[in-house]
Write a structure and sequence with these properties.
Bound molecules: zinc ion
Distance between the termini: 6 Å
Largest sheet: 7 strands, mixed
CATH superfamily: Ribonuclease Z/Hydroxyacylglutathione hydrolase-like
Oligomer: single chain
Shape: globular
Structural class: alpha/beta
CATH topology: Metallo-beta-lactamase, Chain A
Number of domains: 1
Number of strands: 14
Number of helices: 8
CATH architecture: 4-Layer Sandwich
Order of helices and strands: EEEHEHHEHEEEEEHEHEHHEE
């Protein structure tokens, strides 16, 4: 069973919604696994509210190095240190993940990296380099975004989840998304093309083409979100048998 909790669903600078950050709980044949997908600067309080246990988190996926997707990590790590975490934490992401984490922690809390008291492990996932860990297979493809972003597919036996990070789908990420039960896609704009971002209508079309059962739209531009809610009937009609969701923080779905 996979439980998906939408801790945050906002874009970078939304005054009402925390940055897009998703918690995954997986109960496979091994011990339960808890993962976080992206951790922007406004995401950590959402995580702490959902999971106060400092030892529960096994891994964090970082889609790309924009602050609304990764600059919550220093706060997360230092609170783990305060609470006496001992368990290793695995950071997964594209090439450069280790340097980025090190640099961001050094900037936020100089000297803390050496004092954390629990191991940080790094695993690079790249389009040509899938990774198996925690009983899950991580696969990635490059999306179209202003900074290099990797879309992620997490495969758990017969179930899989696709998460776009930021960016419009590419032919490569379309191939990756095929067969996912749940697609979580950023939809920064309604239907007008914005360079390097997804749209609501484009994401619906993409999810239908990929044969997904569920589509959750996140990272909607703060001035556009109310329009999306107002026009849900039209979008639901467009989605057909695809279960279309615009989650609020705290929304959860089990697969
Ligand atoms: Zn973003
Ligand atoms: Zn971005």
């Amino acid at each position: 069973m996979i439980e998906v909790v939408f801790l945050g669903v906002g874009e970078a600078f939304d005054e009402k919604l925390p940055n897009t950050s998703i918690l995954i709980r997986y109960k496979g044949s091994t011990s339960p696994v808890t993962l976080l997908l992206d951790c922007g600067f406004t995401a950590p309080p959402q995580f702490w509210s959902e999971e106060p246990d400092a030892d529960i988190l096994d891994g964090i996926w970082i889609s790309h190095f924009h602050g609304d997707h990764c600059l919550g990590i220093p706060a997360l790590l230092v609170r783990f240190w305060e609470e006496g975490r001992k368990k290793a934490l695995t950071l997964l992401g594209q090439k450069g993940i280790a340097t980025f984490i090190r640099t961001s922690l050094d900037l936020a809390y100089p000297g803390m990296y050496e004092r954390l008291g629990f191991p940080l492990k790094y695993l690079e996932v790249e389009p040509e380099k899938e990774v198996t860990i925690f009983g899950l297979v991580f696969q990635a493809a490059v999306n179209s975004h202003s900074q290099r972003d990797l879309a992620l597919k997490i495969n758990a036996k017969e179930k899989s989840i696709y998460y776009s990070g930021d960016g419009k789908a590419t032919p490569e990420s379309m191939v990756l998304a095929k067969g996912s039960q749940l697609i979580i896609h950023e939809a920064f704009s309604l239907e007008a093309e914005v360079p390097g971002h997804g749209t609501v209508t484009g994401s619906i079309k993409m999810a239908k083409e990929c044969g997904a059962s569920n589509l959750a739209l996140v990272h909607i531009q703060r001035k556009v979100r109310s329009q999306v809610i107002d026009e849900m009937q039209r979008f639901t009609h467009m989605a057909g048998s695809l279960n279309l969701m615009v989650p609020e923080p705290g929304f959860r779905i089990a697969l």
